[in-house]
Amino acid sequence: MTSSQAFNRTNTVSQLIDARADIAPQKIAVIDRGGIWTYAELAAETRRLAGGLLKLGVGSGDRVGFWLPNIAQYLALHIACARIGAITISINTRFRSSEVGDIVGRSGCRALVLWPSFKDIAFLDILAEVDSTHLEQLEFLITYSEGEQETQLSGRLSSRRTVSYADLARSKMFASDGAGAQNGVVVFTTSGTTAAPKFVLHSQHSISHHAHDVASFFGWNDPDAVLLQVLPLCGTFGHAGAMAALSAGCPMVLMPVFSDHEAVQLMQSHRITHCNGSDEMFARMLAVAPDPYPFPLFRSGGYAAFNPLYQDIVARAHDRGMNLVGLYGMSEIQALYARQDPAASVELRGRCGGYPASTDSHVRVRDPESGQILPHGQVGELEATGPSRMIGYLEDATATESVFTSDGFVRSGDLGYTESDGGFVFLGRMGDAIRLGGFLVNPAEIEQHIEQHPAVERVQVVAVDTQAGTRAYAFVIPAENAPLHEDALLAHCASGMASFKVPIGVQLLNQFPVTESANGIKIQKSRLREMACAQLSQDRQTPDTDSIDP
Questions:
Q1: Which residues of the chain register pLDDT less than 50?
Q2: Whole-angstrom Cα distance, residue 357 to residue 523?
Q3: DSSP SS3 for 417
Q4: How high is the pLDDT of residue 6?
Q5: Is CATH 3.10.50.40 the classification given to domain 435-547?
Q6: Nearest 5°: CA angle at 521, between 517 and 527?
Q7: Closest Cα partner for 271 from 302, 294, 290, 237?
Q8: Could you tell me which residues come within 8 angstroms of residue 425 by beta carbon, excluding any fewer than 6 positions away?
Q9: Regarding the domain delimited by 39-199, which CATH topology (the fold level of the hierarchy) does it fall under?
Q10: CA Rg, the chain, in Å?
Q11: Domain spanning 258-429 has what CATH number?
Q12: Which pTM value belongs to this model?
């Protein structure tokens, strides 16, 4: 068996990186803030970290929370967890106390990895604000720093043991692998029909297999391919890209935080050929790039349509020499599940959807009312399956059963239609979930947090389109005899939620607009959206007298 054949048969995340290290040990795997990691160095680091985790007592099936930005150490520690069969629980660095507490508590994290001083954010203070009931199973804090400084814990965190990343990386190498192909390896959080995000669990095989498929389908196997990784590794969009780059042997340039100017500089200095991102990311890069054709080596980039202000991003990019294509994916089947043909017209490339990366993946459309599978061209709910499919929702058999069809397809909750050539088109969400800051968020999650305020009786949250993108807007019925001010409510939101979830505005109401139906009384979400847009329009037209010179 050749090394290439062995590589193609890898079934676990650690085998994926080890195979690459065997094939080309000195090839660059990761470029991170000026540092360079070869595949041999990355593989060795993961084995030392795996040995350190085992020495701590972290083993197969244990959950390790990752509250980290895009750094090489994130990838190394993630693969180390995969080696010993531990499960990575992905946590966005923009999440705050209520969100972090919910994820750490419900997932049962034994350890949490964080960079306490990243961007001067008080991560330890945020963690200290978490309800102690959510931290009952948390035993270890694994801290990364740019130096050797010790992390001091206080208050409710003082009983937790801390260990530095540097100490773990000095451990004796773990010589074998402790996980099988069907073992869980990573959890992504996603919003569903309830306020609490669901935990999407993927197997070693689904991650590894999808990485191989994406690497080949997206052309990252080319010898001179270089990927700019601007998307957070904590989400399926960024994670799928990173795993595919490692599978392809494609050097990956990491950005801890997206910056349009820095992204342009990295694109040019590292001869970037591929990059995935949101429509807004690409628009911002093009806006600050001075040259008419700033990226002559760029071949293809996949984008997700999150902001309605950038509906023409494919055309904008095309005029500047950049080839962008629409994508499709979701946590349950992984991002980069499908993409449009890079050789197609600008109009076709601008559609979300496309053709599955794996020849073993299939998409169909079902009529949500009749339950019948629809022919090509008819709009209904998209259903998808393939080797990138999740195991299920972590410790939630009911939710898992509800999302799977009897023959193993995933009900997406998305509207779309299939085409006769094997492609499909995504049109939008069927439910009320909204895209905020590039992440799918259920309004109920925001509503639940606002209702924790003692002066709030009931809440409804809707999405509104602004010049800054889609934002949340809250309508609140105050509790009886409870004074309530918009500023105090927004401060309450900012203290416990990521900034992209904080409503752009609040209106106080005595009651919500409702309508009678056969199934009872329903709140008129459409009317609330109209009211929100009207108020925002009025706010824009009202001059700020404090800013006008006398």
A1: 1-7, 192-193, 518, 544-550
A2: 41
A3: strand
A4: 40
A5: no
A6: 90
A7: 294
A8: 351, 352, 353, 416, 417, 419
A9: Rossmann fold (3.40.50)
A10: 24
A11: 3.40.50.12780
A12: 0.88
